[in-house]
Each structure stands twice: as structure tokens, then as C-alpha cells.
Design goal:
145 residues, mainly beta, Metal Binding Protein, Guanine Nucleotide Exchange Factor, Chain A, 7-stranded mixed beta sheet, 2 helices, zinc, Mss4-like protein, metal ion binding, CENP-V/GFA
Length: 145
């Protein structure tokens, strides 16, 4: 699957033809980041993307923000058009996770079928009946709601 930003300067292939998981995230951070009611997050393995190639790294800006439990989140943007491309969580020890999130809007041909809804406790739009949903993170400790 091809990733292309709005100005088309950032372009690369995902490591697999489809994401491992797909979520519509209703957290307040995704609302701010997307300027909308939620953000679409496609989960991919980092293999084949990280470490970033010199070319891709030169095209991206990084904003790092605090995350839960001492973690941080590296958010990658196109230096030219400012579109958020992806983010990757780093654990408290600084180690990057082996998965990353690529924003749905930059993925060419992404199917939204089967997307789960996360952080629904912050939702500002109605969540459709019958979809997979979590009040917080889809991690096992948060519990499915």
C-alpha cells in the first residue's frame, strides 16, 4: 500500500499490503491532530520503515510528546505540507515499539471495513451499533466495552 502526503513529496510503501489492525481513535489528542471528530490509525509493523531511510528522514519533521506510563510518542509530519504521516510509541526506556501507526488519510486504497473504535469515552459523534469498540486503549488491560 502506498503512503502519500498531501503535497506528494513524502511517498513510501507499507511493509504489508494491509494494516495489522485499523482503528478510528476518538481520543482528544487525535481530535486535535486531525482537526476532526476522530483520527484513523492503521497499525503496521515497523520492519521495512524503521530505521528510516536517509531520504525519508530528510522529508519528515518529528514532534515528540509525552504518552501514558512514561512513554513518548514520535509524530512524523511532511516538512513541506505539514500532513501527519505516522507516529511511533517509545517505551519508558526509549525503545521504539515494533509497530507504528500510519494515518488513514495518507494510505492509498485503504479499506475502512472492520475498523474498531477506540477511546470512545471521548467520542463527539455517535459510534455505529455492532462495531468493535473500547472505552480506552484496545490493550487487554483496558477491557472491551
Amino acid at each position: 500500500m502506498e503512503v502519500i502526503c498531501q503535497c506528494e513529496l513524502v511517498s513510501f510503501q507499507t511493509p504489508t499490503p494491509a494494516p495489522l489492525r485499523l482503528y478510528h481513535c476518538h481520543c482528544t489528542e487525535c481530535q486535535k491532530q486531525s482537526g476532526s471528530a476522530y483520527g484513523t490509525s492503521a497499525v503496521f509493523a515497523t520492519e521495512g520503515i524503521f530505521p528510516l531511510s536517509d531520504n525519508l528522514e530528510a522529508q519528515l519533521s518529528v514532534f515528540t510528546r509525552p504518552a501514558k506510563q512514561g512513554r513518548t510518542m514520535d509524530c512524523y509530519f511532511c516538512k513541506t505540507c505539514g500532513v501527519r504521516i505516522m507516529h511511533r510509541v517509545r517505551e519508558a526506556d526509549g525503545q521504539g515499539r515494533n509497530t507504528l501507526i500510519i494515518k488513514g488519510g495518507v494510505l492509498q486504497g485503504l479499506s475502512y471495513k472492520g475498523a474498531g473504535h477506540i477511546y470512545t469515552r471521548s467520542a463527539v459523534v455517535e459510534i455505529p451499533a455492532g462495531v468493535e469498540r473500547w472505552e480506552a486503549s484496545p490493550e487487554p488491560e483496558s477491557g472491551r466495552k
